[in-house]
């Protein structure tokens, strides 16, 4: 008596269920993309088998010709996508088709709103792969047999929350995906429709896509690796579809670099820069999507040595003519050929960016579009990559106080005011709030442009860059700042009282605030505000300290310097009070209010809000009494 194995019931991962619900309601304007996703997955399975067969030739001995087969039953509205690739085991079926093992998936799904247009853009960044089947099918059946195994398994689901797995039979290795098409998707069981879809979406697939039952086994695609063809033979649509095949996303590439390197080493590179940032770009586990081939044999899609982390948004293929087919992970890490390829790839990509930055600065889809999507990632390279630091600085764009657009450092230097010796910047989280900081008042009055650096990475690359084109970079919230050499446009310099008039006030402020501030001094950067806090030249900047404390990397910050504005009416009045008999107590009370006011203006929390409220109330009562 044959023992029967019960059908297993599984529940989809919560994120998968949410995606399926959106996909099933025809989120995409062109449902034909489901076939592109299935054929792409089948091609990947063939690639992985070809690689495993390098070590285990018996895996392909009985069936050496890899292919993808499309079968249809128009009367029953059935479409089957079959491949004789690597196949899946029981565990792989459950894992690959029941969960999405991508970092940040939960956060991505949480961002879905139910608004079709907005969710379309988000899912376009994510890619849904196999699950696109449910755009056209109300039931999907998968039968798969892992290469080297005698066991086959069947996976079935209607996409409504559950799936079942049970034993099955299959003559050889590979996977069959059968779609029970919806009534309004009957066209996908017609051979003419399949021919058109493959021509549009899968012509670049290097594995033959064959129409089952057709005369002489009709092959629907060119079945040659796209990157091996001459550029003159490839149009933009073919490049775009190959990019989508590699990335499993729905946007078009913003830039394409396709070239053959010859000389000391030989390799072909076909690299794409996306037009939209993927949802998990800033997840620590995100890696680039560049596949390594050796003489058109797939090796790995995890060759992190090919590109630095600051180019992790790049998608593409690198095909080496010099690496051995049996190259291992360890060999990639220490291989001089890989190092030379990496140098060539980085140089090519930077050259492409430099060309686009020069030619397309003002176009709507030009360089500024790229920078908006990927600028913060590229700036990581300024801190991490000394070899390419100067080129990356040249490619960087910044918001400034001069306008609402982007500017380069070169353009900033060209606009520097007469007498200006430094490139000024301020760091923070909100450019609008940074513009209002009191530390910028003197610069703005003189028409001096200040870079508004709002990306967290800015604090870290600044530590590696001292100057640009001979001009030092200087924070407006750290160190002393002599602006007297820069005259305010069309405005006479305001008369400043002699410094010694404030000696008594400064002495009282230092005495009162000796545990709150590091020093007290007259300010040249203030115009309208009475006071501000700045970091000492030897201490870390104010915003960086705040970031480090938020991330528990710093327990206590350094004391700041309190600057007072000698032209401000309040400070002048306090200076007179400090010299009067009995004025010390009033100055002491005002001192604590002033330093709390400076903290609030800088966006820092007050150490004792209740005490601040009491002092403010007392001061207001006296002024109204």
- Count the beta strands: 21
| Structural class assignment | alpha+beta
Helix share, percent: 25-40%
- What is the fourth-level CATH superfamily of the largest domain? Histidine kinase-like ATPase, C-terminal domain
List unreliable stretches of 5+ residues: none
CATH fold-level name of the largest domain: Heat Shock Protein 90
Q: Trace the largest sheet across and list its strands.
A: 1-6-5-4-7-3-2-8
Indicate the proportion of strand residues: 15-25%
How does this model look, in words?
The structure is a single chain. This protein has 3 domains: 8-223, Histidine kinase-like ATPase, C-terminal domain (Heat Shock Protein 90, 2-Layer Sandwich), CATH 3.30.565.10; 231-359, Ribosomal Protein S5, domain 2 (2-Layer Sandwich); 499-624, Four Helix Bundle (Hemerythrin (Met), subunit A) (Up-down Bundle), CATH 1.20.120.790. Helix content is 36%, strand content 18%. It is built from 21 helices and 21 strands. The N and C termini lie far apart (103 Å). 35% of the residues are buried. The mean pLDDT is 88.
């Amino acid at each position: 008596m044959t023992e029967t194995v019960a059908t297993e019931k599984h529940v989809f991962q919560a994120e998968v269920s949410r995606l399926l619900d959106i996909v099933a309601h025809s989120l995409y304007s062109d449902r034909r993309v489901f076939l592109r996703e299935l054929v792409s997955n089948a091609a990947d399975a063939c690639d992985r088998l070809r690689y495993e067969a390098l070590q285990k030739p018996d895996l392909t001995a009985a069936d050496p010709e890899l292919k993808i087969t499309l079968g249809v039953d128009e009367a029953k509205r059935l479409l089957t996508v079959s491949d004789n690739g690597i196949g899946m085991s029981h565990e792989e079926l459950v894992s690959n088709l029941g969960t999405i093992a991508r970092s940040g998936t939960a956060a991505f799904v949480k961002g879905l709103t139910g608004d079709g247009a907005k969710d379309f853009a988000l899912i376009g960044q994510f890619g849904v792969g196999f699950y696109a089947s449910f755009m056209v099918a109300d039931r999907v059946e998968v039968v798969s047999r892992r290469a080297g195994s005698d066991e086959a398994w069947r996976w079935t689901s209607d996409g409504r929350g559950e799936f079942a797995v049970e034993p099955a039979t299959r003559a050889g290795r590979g996977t069959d995906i059968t779609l029970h098409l919806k009534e309004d998707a009957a066209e996908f069981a017609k051979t003419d429709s399949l021919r058109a879809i493959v021509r549009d979406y899968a012509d670049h697939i290097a594995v033959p896509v064959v129409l089952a039952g057709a005369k002489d086994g009709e092959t629907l695609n060119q079945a040659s690796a796209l990157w091996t063809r001459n550029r003159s033979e490839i149009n933009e649509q073919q490049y775009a579809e190959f990019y989508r095949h590699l990335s499993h996303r729905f946007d078009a590439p913003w830039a394409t670099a396709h070239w053959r390197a010859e000389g000391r080493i030989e390799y072909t590179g076909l690299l794409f820069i996306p037009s939209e940032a993927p949802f998990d770009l800033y997840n620590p586990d995100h890696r680039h999507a560049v596949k390594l081939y050796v003489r058109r044999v797939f090796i790995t899609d995890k060759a992190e040595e090919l590109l630095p982390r600051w180019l992790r948004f790049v998608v593409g293929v690198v095909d080496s003519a010099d690496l051995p087919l049996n190259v291992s992970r360890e060999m990639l890490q220490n291989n001089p050929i890989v190092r030379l390829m990496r140098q060539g790839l980085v140089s090519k990509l930077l050259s492409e960016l430099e060309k686009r930055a020069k030619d397309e600065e003002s176009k709507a889809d030009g360089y500024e579009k790229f920078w908006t999507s990927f600028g913060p990632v590229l700036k990581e390279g300024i801190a991490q990559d000394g070899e390419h630091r100067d080129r990356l600085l040249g490619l960087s764009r910044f918001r400034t106080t001069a306008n609402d657009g982007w500017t380069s450092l070169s353009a900033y230097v060209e606009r520097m005011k007469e007498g200006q010796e430094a490139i000024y910047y301020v760091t923070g989280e909100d450019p609008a709030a940074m513009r209002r900081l009191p530390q910028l008042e003197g610069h703005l009055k003189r028409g001096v442009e200040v870079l508004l650096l709002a990306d967290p990475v800015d604090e870290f690359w600044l530590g590696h860059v001292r100057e640009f084109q001979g001009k030092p970079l200087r924070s407006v919230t750290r160190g002393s700042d002599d602006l007297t050499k820069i005259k305010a446009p069309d405005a006479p310099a305001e008369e400043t009282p002699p410094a010694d008039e404030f000696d008594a006030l400064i002495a009282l402020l230092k005495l009162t605030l000796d545990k709150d501030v590091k020093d007290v001094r007259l300010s040249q950067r203030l115009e309208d505000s009475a006071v501000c806090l700045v970091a000492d030249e030897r201490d870390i900047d104010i915003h960086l300290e705040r970031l480090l404390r938020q991330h528990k990397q710093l327990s206590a910050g350094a004391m700041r310097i309190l600057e007072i504005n000698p032209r401000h009416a309040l400070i002048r009045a306090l200076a007179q009070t400090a010299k009067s008999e009995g004025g010390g107590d009033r100055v002491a009370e005002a001192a604590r209010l002033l330093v709390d006011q400076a903290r609030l203006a800088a966006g820092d929390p007050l150490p004792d809000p209740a005490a601040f409220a009491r002092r403010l109330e007392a001061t207001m009562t006296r002024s109204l009494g």
